[in-house]
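Task 17 of the worksheet. Students: predict the tertiary structure of the chain below and write it out as structure tokens. Keep your answer in the requested format; marks are given for formatting as well as content.
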Amino acid sequence: MATSDSDKNVRPAVPSLVSEQKPALSRRAFLRYASLASGGLILAACSSAPAAQSPTSAPAEPTAQPATAAPAASPVTSATVPGDTNSATLGAAKIAYGGGACEAATFVGYENGFFEAEGLKPELVALAAGTQKEALASDKVNALQYTAESIKALEQGLGVRITTGLHKGCIRLLAGVNSGIKTVADLKGKTLGITNFGGLPQVLVQWALSDLGLDPVKDVTYTIFPGEQLESAVQKGEIDAFALYDPLAAIALNNKTVIQIFSTQDDLPYKDMYCCFIGVSQKVVEQNPEQAAAITRAFQKAAYWVEHNKPEAAKIMVAKKYVPASEELLLTLLNQYDYIPSAEKGKVNFGKFVEILKRVGVLEPDTDPQKLTDLAFVQVTPDLYPGEGSAPSRGVPQYSAQVLREMALNPQLVYSASHISGPGFYCNLS
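Model answer:
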């Protein structure tokens, strides 16, 4: 379903990414496989196949704009989110989505008029993962929620630009209670369960290992398991630890079968890392920068609205059938995401991911991480600051009996909610 980087493909020449030094790589075959598995595809955060078709209903009427639709107690509406609103007509903007729980800003941006407020005529387009990368790179769609895992494809010349960090996710490194693992350093010589090679959970663990002077590839054995089987694999002794997104990671922690080594909610430097960004086609960024800026502002404003109106966001997603889940489940999941967007901080995060992928050998030996970051991440509009800082850590989420039943009845929905997918993919939309 996903296109992958192949040794048989000729890597497009990207002279600006080449550094002056070319360090040799060891364990080339393994690392190459890691880049193949990550595939460069990875878009729209996380979902099962979208049940809804492209919306046919007209965008919200002026009376349904966020300024009036939001509850009176909410501090964030289209009127209170600062930033220049472009009154010019910037034309049609095709925004792709996959139907994932954490795509709330996409749905809210459309339904509550944030794109229209920026002078755009939005159209939502439901796309399966196997078509999203090509559609965005060829400008068949103009923007979508994106992840850092397409860094390899960007290195190879993918026609996409990242314009802002959108939201932060929930990744936990967990170890079996009887594994003897208490710190990252204790992972040496152990087996770590992951859902796919090259995914962000593995990258974060490799980052932590390399910071301790350990070999992030050789010192740990990585084993692929479906996300819902990782807790059982620890209990059976098939693995010693695993790195995984919530909700499955939090459920395992609640079950007291594992202990937490670190999480992106609680521990520096991970807690400030974005898992999802906004990708805009290179053609739009270069040929229509005003439209690229308007699209990015609309996403940023919608994200702030979601952060302060999560119950209402869940209602919208259910009412419009964007995600096949109950309001209770969607609200539980949305509460695990930190929707405080930033292009400035997002670029720093993105650059760190590039650096780590270079460090562990996924990127080419002659690629300069800073040049690749500068090429791929383009800030097209000033950041908005309706609030300061990050949301406080929410700790370990507690799940109601109804939410747990809903997850158990639809494991694929759990994947969609938590960025988990089968081997080789980050977001499995098929």
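Marker's comment: Strands lie at 91-97, 120-126, 143-147, 160-168, 171-176, 191-194, 221-224, 241-245, 258-263, 274-281. The chain has 17 helices and ten strands.
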